[in-house]
Specification:
Shape of chain B: rod-shaped
Shape of chain A: globular
Structural class of chain B: alpha+beta
Number of helices of chain A: 10
Helix content of chain A: 40-55%
Number of strands of chain B: 26
Radius of gyration of chain B: 65 Å
Oligomer: heterodimer
Distance between the termini of chain B: 123 Å
Strand content of chain B: 15-25%
Number of helices of chain B: 28
Chain lengths: ~280, ~800
């Protein structure tokens, strides 16, 4: 019996501390690692597969990328307990927060902001101008891409016709090809996308900064495993091999900026939780 | 185009290829070429297309795999197996993909196959020919270093094969259509243009069978090559027909010539079989043409080489077989089938074909039997005397020449006898030439028996014979000659009851170093013979180089050149001696003109020295002519100042001039040219000269006397003459030989001779002249005898005419 099977057996026998969901992955298979849909599935796989392979190797914990067609579906997988780890900022709503996911690391980047952007030559100059217009958002689950911008629009008393293509770059592409007049975006993803696709844009609205997207561990993942994975992510940038992989995958998604991972914890994401509470209260 | 009767061709034994018409050949050849070209082009394009298709199939598979992988990868990342399965089914539903499979990392296989068998248009053999194979390929699907699985696909070549089949079928149909169009065009073009060829063929057949040249007309629309061919054919036809006509004429001509030619003409083939035989050949060989044709030459032409004995036919056959050069001329003795024998002159030449090979021979035979006989006769006649059958002079001289050379080579001694009959002229003149000829024949027949064995006997002249006695010395030769003379004397000749005893004189010379050549030998023997005659006839005189007498005679010959020299330098001159009339003839001015020779030193040569040589060596006719011209010249000058008839000149003529037929004409011309009256001239001829050819002399005298000339018979009584001759010689004067006159004063016999001659003359109406009157006593006697004229030193010595002219005139 492997160690993991033993852990699984123990976890079944022990009463859980909360009503946190059960792990629903094959104990004999690599641990499923979900990634929230920011880009296309293939681009996502190209970015994450090498990183996960590295971390699996370094940590000794085999990880396997899992992704659904859309961000909400991927989030759904998380909620259903199908993912041992997940790279997502969709799990800070009060309900999801209660599921027991724990932040173990995040991308080593500056904080991200939610933005409402238009193309540089767009006649739209204020949020008011968006009244009644088609505005693309990654998904309803997207925090800086939808939750934050839509809250701003609500505050501004502007009602738009929201469109959800499924992920960040899909929403940006709607803007780029003129399907919508504006898009709600993650400012970092937008910058990377604009740089890769050579488009010029301007932001009608930028939110307060929020921490970059975290990697969370399912509460069913043993602490040792969690820590091994955290250590591998955190040490990746310092490890030449890890750094090299990070450089390669950054190129694959079209950004010159190479970012590693740093260890992180739930406390780093308190402003997310506050936003949700405030938004709940506002409704 | 002219329509000529077509001639059926004999195609029964021809091969299939030979029976194919030009159309069929061209169509078959074109069809085969098109077929091969079409096949090759189709094969090449098919192969190229097949390669392209194979590559495209592989590319398609690769591309399909890659595009499929790009689509599948997302489903693989999502783990959407239903999506993958759906995708595979969709892919497999496409025509070209037969099987699509997904094998994931864990080995799970998702498979989709094209359930419906594709509709195959192309036949199975074409697929095998094309060699396209279904292809299969696998492509691992990985992303970001992670392999999600492997995509495997099989692609079906059927679609490509069908497409290729459609292309090939379309190409083939187009090619077939083009070939059919080409065939139709070729057929039409050939049919159109072959009409000219057919016309030319019919024209050729017409030319072959008809006697006139065909004319082919070709429409202007025909190709220029065919029009030019037709024109060339027409020209050829015309010239060929013309040539054939000419050849026919020539053949006819040659046939007529060969049939009418005087020579026998035979031709044979290369095997010696007779092919042609003309009428002369029929006559000569004694075999008809129909019998001869087709037979071997040896069977009809039986002739042998006279020298080698080879058969002519054998030689000819060998010549033909050996391809030897023409045999040229040869003489053969021919035995004709009729049993006759001929001598034929054969000329033969090989007949050659254009390549120069002998294809037969032509033999021309000329019957030379007659000409050969004539030739033999002429050859004999050239060397023999026709009358006696003995060798003639030229043949004798050739043998003599050989014998002299033999003697010079030390092979002697040999001897030459020169024999002259003494009484022959008498027989000839009195009994006629037939008698003379008979005498000569009798003697000739016997002489061979009378001489030694090996002797060569020839008739050298009228009654002169030459005998060559090989291997005999002087004594033996002399013995033979003496025996010969005795035999001749001992063989009397009788003619018409009259009997003649014939004598002969002979000269003998031994051929030695001292005798330079044949001519000298003959002169020497002649000298000997002459000497023998001088010595009294019927004897033999041997010529010896030491013999003074003979030397002298031999020296006479030198005089011949001196006489010629005198002619050349005009050293002859005339002197005159008066003939004095006695009795009733007194007072007549008569002179005998005598010729003299002045030597270069100025001395006068007496006639006794040069006249014998002149007589003996044939100079006398020339000398006589000179004397006559000179005498007439003098006489004309003299007569110019004297009354006609007061002067008479006596001119001596030699026997040779009497016998010269042209001399009478000469005299007539001289009388006419000089104006000298014939009555003033009296010609003197010696009794010997007159008697030696009595008839001729009489004719001469009569003809000259008819002009008015007179004739005197000189030296009468000195020779063999008899009074009987006087009856036959119409002379005016008799000159009594001086030998009788000179001594008549003292010798009563001589006196009686003079008297009787004078008397006979007068009886015959002939005046007489006494010569050699050297004293008054003789003159008185002559006067008393009644002699008409006297001449001699007593009356005047011969002298230049000028010395006599004045006294004569004064006397007159």
């Amino acid at each position: 019996m492997t160690f993991r099977r033993l852990l699984a057996l123990i976890s079944l026998l022990m009463p859980v501390t909360s009503h946190a969901l059960d792990a629903k992955w094959d104990p004999d298979a690599p641990l499923p690692f979900g990634v929230i849909n920011q880009r296309s599935i293939t681009l996502t796989a190209e970015y994450w597969n090498p990183i996960l392979a590295y971390v699996s190797r370094r940590s000794g914990v085999p990880l396997q990328l899992r992704i659904a067609n859309t961000a909400p579906e991927t989030t759904g997988m998380s909620i259903r307990g199908e993912l041992a780890f997940v790279y997502s900022n969709h799990l800070f709503t009060p309900e999801r927060d209660a599921l027991g996911f724990a932040v173990i690391a995040r991308t080593e980047e500056n904080a991200i902001r939610g933005q409402i952007v238009v193309l540089e030559d767009s006649p739209v100059s204020t949020l008011k101008d968006l009244e009644g217009k088609d505005v693309a958002f990654p998904s309803q689950e997207a925090f800086v891409g939808y939750q934050v911008p839509i809250a701003a629009l609500d505050r501004a008393g502007v009602s738009v016709k929201a469109i959800f293509p499924g992920n960040q770059e899909a929403a940006m592409s709607q803007l780029r090809f003129g399907k919508v007049v504006a898009a709600g975006v993650n400012d970092r993803v937008m910058a990377t996308y604009a740089e890769r696709e050579r488009i010029r844009y301007r932001a009608l609205y930028s939110s307060d900064p929020y921490q970059s997207i975290p990697i969370l561990a399912h509460p069913g993942v043993p602490a040792a495993t969690r820590m091994k994975v955290q250590a591998a992510f955190a040490g990746m940038m310092k490890d030449p091999e890890g750094a090299k992989i990070l450089r390669v995958v950054s190129e694959a998604i079209g950004t010159a900026k190479v970012s590693g991972f740093v260890a992180s914890s739930n406390g780093d994401y308190e402003n997310y939780r506050r936003f949700y509470r405030a938004a709940r209260a506002a409704r | 185009m002219a329509d000529f009767p077509a001639k059926a061709s004999d195609g029964a034994s021809e091969s299939l290829l030979a029976r194919l018409s030009l159309r069929a050949r061209l169509l078959i050849a074109t069809g085969a070429l098109l077929l091969v070209a079409g096949f090759v082009v189709t094969a090449i394009t098919t192969e190229i297309s097949a390669r392209g298709m194979r590559a495209r199939l592989a590319n398609d598979l690769d591309r399909t795999l890659r595009t499929s992988a790009a689509l599948v990868v997302e489903l693989a990342v999502l783990g959407d197996y239903a999506g993958i399965e759906q995708f595979l089914r969709r892919r497999a539903a496409q025509d070209d993909v037969a099987v699509a499979e997904w094998i994931d990392a864990s080995g799970t296989v998702l498979r989709a196959t094209f359930g419906v068998e594709p509709l195959r248009i192309r036949p199975e053999w074409f697929a095998r020919l094309l060699g396209l194979k279904d292809v299969a390929g696998v492509l691992p699907v990985e992303l970001g270093g992670r392999t999600y699985g492997t995509l495997r696909m099989e692609m079906n070549a059927t679609e490509h094969e069908d497409r290729m089949w459609q292309i090939v079928r379309a190409q083939s149909l187009v090619s077939l259509a083009a070939a059919a169009a080409l065939f139709a065009a070729i057929y039409a073009l050939l049919s159109l243009n072959l009409r000219v060829v057919v016309a030319i063929r019919r024209g050729a057949e017409y030319l072959e069978s008809q006697s006139e040249a065909p004319t082919i007309t070709v429409p202007d629309s025909a190709p220029p090559e065919l029009r030019a061919t037709a024109r060339a054919f027409n020209r050829m036809g015309t010239s060929l027909r013309s040539l054939v006509n000419e050849l026919l004429v020539e053949k006819e001509h040659a046939f007529v010539v060969l049939n009418s030619i005087g020579d026998a003409v035979i031709t044979t083939d290369a095997q010696g079989i007779v092919e042609y035989f003309n009428p002369v050949a029929e006559r000569l060989l004694g075999i008809s043409r129909t019998e001869a044709l087709g037979k071997p030459l040896a069977g009809v032409y039986r002739a042998r080489d006279e020298r080698s004995g080879d058969t002519a036919a054998g030689n000819l056959t060998r010549m033909i077989k050996a391809d030897a050069p023409p045999a040229g001329f040869g003489q053969y003795t021919l035995a004709s089938a009729s049993g006759e024998h001929f001598v034929v002159e054969q000329s033969a030449a090989p007949l050659r074909d254009e390549a120069g090979r002998v294809r037969g021979s032509v033999i021309v035979l000329r019957n030379v039997t007659e000409s050969r006989n004539i030739e033999a006769r002429l050859t004999w006649q050239a060397s023999h005397d026709a009358l006696t059958g003995l060798l003639n002079r030229s043949a004798f001289e050739r043998r003599l020449h050989d014998l002299v050379a033999d003697a010079h080579a030390g092979q002697g001694p040999h001897a030459l006898v020169y024999l002259d009959l003494d009484q022959f002229k008498i027989v000839n003149d009195t009994c006629g030439h037939a008698a003379g000829d008979q005498l000569l024949r009798n003697l000739s027949n016997s002489m061979g028996d009378w001489t030694s064995e090996g002797a060569t006997i020839a008739r050298l002249g009228g009654d002169e014979f030459g005998i060559l006695l090989p291997r005999l010395g002087e004594n033996e030769a002399q013995g033979v000659a003496e025996a010969l003379i005795r035999r001749i004397q001992g063989m009397p000749f009788t003619w018409e009851g009259r009997r003649f005893v014939i004598g002969a004189s002979a000269g003998v010379v031994v051929l030695s170093e001292a005798i330079a050549d044949a001519q000298e030998a003959l002169r020497a023997a002649d000298s000997g013979c002459y000497a023998a005659k001088d010595e009294g006839r019927n004897r033999v005189r041997v010529y010896r180089t030491t013999d003074e007498d003979l030397q002298r005679r031999h020296g006479e010959m030198q005089w011949v050149s001196r006489v010629h020299d005198a002619f050349e330098h005009d050293r002859f001159f005339l002197v005159a001696q008066p003939i004095v009339g006695l009795g009733a003839n007194a007072g007549k001015n008569v002179f005998e003109l005598l010729v003299r020779l002045r030597d270069p030193d100025g001395s006068t040569v007496p006639p006794g020295l040069f006249l014998p040589a002149a007589e003996r060596y044939g100079v006398m006719p020339s000398l006589d002519r000179w004397v006559v011209r000179r005498a007439f010249q003098m006489l004309r000058g003299y007569l110019a100042g004297a009354p006609q008839g007061e002067v008479h000149f006596h001119i001596n003529l030699s026997g040779a001039s009497i016998n010269d037929d042209l001399f009478i004409d000469f005299l007539r011309d001289q009388f006419a040219a000089s104006g000298v009256p014939a009555e003033s001239v009296c010609f003197e001829i010696t009794e010997t000269a007159a008697v030696s050819n009595l008839q001729r002399a009489a004719r001469f005298i009569n003809q000259m006397r008819a002009l008015g000339c007179e004739f005197a018979l000189d030296d009468f009584g000195s020779g063999l003459s008899s009074f009987r001759y006087l009856k036959n010689l119409p002379v005016d004067l008799l000159k009594i030989d001086g030998a009788f006159v000179k001594n008549m004063a003292t010798d009563p016999v001589d006196r009686a001779m003079v008297a009787s001659i004078n008397q006979i003359g007068h009886v015959l109406g002939i005046r007489t002249v006494a010569e050699y009157v050297e004293d008054a006593q003789s003159l008185e006697m002559l006067r008393a005898l009644g002699v008409d004229f006297a001449q001699g030193y007593h009356l005047g010595r011969p002298d230049l005419l000028e010395t006599w002219v004045t006294p004569v005139r004064a006397a007159g």
